[in-house]
Amino acid sequence: MFRRLLSLLLIAWALGFIWFAVFLPRPIVEPVRTDGIVALTGGGGRIPHALDVLERGRAGKLLISGVDREVRPREFAAEYKVPERLMTCCIVLGYDAVDTRSNAVETTRWVKENKLRSVRLVTTDWHMRRAAFDLSVEAPTNLIIVEDAVASKPSFRILFIEYNKYVARLVVWLGAKAIGW
């Protein structure tokens, strides 16, 4: 009986991994407007994509979550060639997040402070599921989260690690729900 249960779990894990790797979230193609944009640091293309969406007028505010504490707004603006008017009116550098879960906490605080009803979540395709899950757990239930994945070509190693992080996060969340946390 134990071997059958273990075999069933292994098959479910393997099929889940195949689904995770083959059906990565995609970028948004059509113009979608949201109240704000949140870009999570850590992967190539995330910040430039979020800045492009902001400059196209698809949202009025942008939070860059997980910025290194050493980075100053002026340095950020120079690095990404951000016009001063956008830096002063519309972009917030978030320094509190150090991982995906704290990105969700930082984003939720920003959403509440700015009374946003919808946000576009920008992160890499392989990271989107876990980031969107953590944000949906933290954020107000009425917040609309639009997933805008930055396409990449992840290695098997990255997919394997991220899938296991995602599964672990779901298991921890289910366990917490089961005990009433």
What low-confidence regions span 5 or more consecutive residues with pLDDT below 50? none
Q: What class, by secondary structure content?
A: alpha/beta
- State the order of secondary-structure elements, H for helix, E for strand: HEHEHHEHEHEH
The major pleated sheet works out as: 5 strands, parallel
> Strands of the largest sheet, in order across it?
3-2-1-4-5
Distance between the termini: 32 Å
Q: Provide mean pLDDT, rounded.
A: 95
Coarse morphology: globular
- Percentage of residues assigned to helices: 40-55%
What percent strand?
Answer: 15-25%
Number of helices, where a helix is a run of at least 4 consecutive DSSP H or I residues: 7
Q: Please report the total strand number as a whole number.
A: 5
What would you report as the Rg, rounded to the nearest angstrom?
18 Å
